[in-house]
Amino acid sequence: MPVQYVLGEWDFQDLTLKMKPPVFIPRPETEDLVSLVVEEESQKHEKNSGLCFPVPVPHPVILEIGCGSGAIALSLLCKLPQSQVIAIDKEEAAVDLTRENAQRLQLQERIHILHHDVSYSSAKQLLVWGPIDFIVSNPPYVFHEDMASLDAEILCYEDLDALDGGDDGMRVIKTILALAPSLLKDSGSVFLEVDPRHPNMVENWLQAHPNLLLILRAIHKDFCGKPRFLHIQKQSR
Hints:
Layout: H1 3-7, E1 9-12, E2 15-18, H2 31-49, E3 61-65, H3 71-79, E4 84-89, H4 92-104, E5 111-115, H5 123-126, E6 132-137, H6 152-157, H7 171-183, E7 184-193, H8 198-207, E8 214-221, E9 227-234
Parallel strand pairs: 3-4, 3-6, 4-5, 6-7
Antiparallel strand pairs: 1-2, 7-9, 8-9
Helix pairs in contact: 2-3
């Protein structure tokens, strides 16, 4: 059994989170996904403060798709004290654990947690606080053919639906990107953790769907030097 489940808790960013099987265990590299969102938000504030007549910057609204234990969502609430987060997961165990961790950290007032399987018709349910500034997700992205080669501990104890991204690893990624334009503010961003093979695949997919008005803004590497994180931005009309 993974040590995180044995201990019943694990650290992520500066938080200690409760862990329960089979909810997905957050990986260390995913901390960089949080940092990228925080950096982008701080850059928006810097640009605004440099204007001759700074305009009020609204508090950021963030949507996390596939919240698991709540690691990403709750870290963002701590790092961005003015933010509000909508966190969704299709697994009830994950929703319950995110809710429990939010209460333990006394962040429950700023997070809206939904038991929901994201789909192309999800927009209405997810706009509870109006248009979204950031969509962030560490979606299932393992190519289905690679699932059998995962560590035995993962295969035995963790929720495999949180890992299996279908034949091309992009089943949920495509849904997120197709939904994003109807959720995001103009110039809003999507931040994704992906397989190192995905950046080119995602770029080609976006080029094949120009009506989405999404562009791949940046590719960031993980601490092993592999392309792991995508910053995708909605273009202003």
